[in-house]
Amino acid sequence: MSTPNRVYIARLAGVAVFDPNGDQVGRIRDAVARMRPTQRPPEVVGLVAEMPMRRRIFLSINRITSIDPDAVVLGSGTLNLRRFEKRPNELLVLQELLDRRVQLDSGPVGSVVDVAMESSRGGEWALTRVAVREQTSRLTRRGHLHQVEWDRVRGLGAVGDNRGTANLLAVLEDMRPADLANALQDLPDARRNEVAAALDDERLADVLSELPEHDQVEILAALDRERAADVLEEMDPDDAADLLNELPPPEQDVLLDLMEPNEADPVRQLLRYASGTAGSVMTSEPVILPPDATVAEALARIREVQLSPAVAAQVFVTRAPLTTPTGRYLGMVHFQRLLREPPADLLGGIVVNDIDPLRTSTPLTEITRRMATYDMVGMPVVDRNNRLVGAVTVDDVLDHSLPRDWRDRDAAPTPSATDDGTLDDD
């Protein structure tokens, strides 16, 4: 692989990073440039890569041996895994420049859609060219794309509030919700709220579920109440209940009243349970089928794309009605058992009920102990009349067993940068 002389940075977003042995260590999320006091374009000092567990680290440009559209390869040496933190005189190119409203020397006004970095003969990388989409008053026509030198663009040096979100969203659109949530935490609050508000309701609901509680509340508060209620409707009831629990009761009532009754009712029910119990952490929408359903029907049901792996791992069998609270709970069938049985067999003939279900008042410590004892991915929750009211899955247990700030990037140790742009441990 060879490194081109000029690289457009938005095209690097999401590109895999490999060590000298060919092992993938992360994906590129941004480039770091150092502002200079003269009129010279900013110097690119490195790239930001996202590692497993959503840790972002700094990769010095001097450590990178090759860049192409499919891979960034590092040279030999120890990879520093301390979390990246931007210094005051540094610029995150995609985060801070993409969608910036600027003016060209030739007159047109437009927004930044990409920025190129270019290497000199001495090996120094700098931001040299800017791709700017000209604004047009015609909604059905895209403006002309200009690719011009850095010094021919006005408005790149000062931070302003005149940036849109379309191009940044285009870079972020292929991220998993957890990764997008991580990226939002890197943005200033106003920019974060702006980008979040531009997401559609379903996408924003998924992202909110992956954010720390304080960020969830701030983003929700920045929306008008009708939009906030629409987003809550798209969330899983247990996630919506967790978020509403962070709000004052009067605000909870307002948002619940704005939600569709069939969406609000399961959330209201979850809010009634005491914190730290099965009732408060369960999902009220597990996969439920009657005993006369076939194995084929059950397999088709758990294939539905909106189901999380933990929810789709088992089918709960009950008498009618099949929405919580159901008729009498009969038992459950794990998906591995479904794969071993003839498609035409009935669930009533293979149902398992030798493990006592949880009660809504079962504490989290007991839930954890029982799920570990029986190697369960999910367990049923029933009321005093043996009606299924929900299920606790392993992700519910993990989410409520970890420290409250486990999603918060600010809770983890942060790195410091040395003068040469690399990161060192203290």
Automatic annotation (TrEMBL):
Record-linked InterPro entries: CBS_dom, CBS_dom_sf, Mg_transptr_MgtE_intracell_dom, MgtE_N_sf, MgtE_transporter, SH3_actinomycetes
SUPFAM superfamilies (alphabetical): CBS-domain pair, MgtE N-terminal domain-like
Region described as Disordered: 404-426
Q: Which UniProt keywords apply?
A: CBS domain
Q: Which domain of life is it from?
A: Bacteria
Family matches, as Pfam families: CBS (PF00571), MgtE_N (PF03448), SH3_actinomycetes (PF26205)
Residues in CBS domain copies? 282-348, 351-409
**PROSITE patterns annotated for this entry?**
CBS
PANTHER family assigned = MAGNESIUM TRANSPORTER MGTE
- Indicate what this protein is called per its UniProt record: Magnesium transporter MgtE N-terminal domain-containing protein
Q: Which organism is the protein's source?
A: Micromonospora maritima
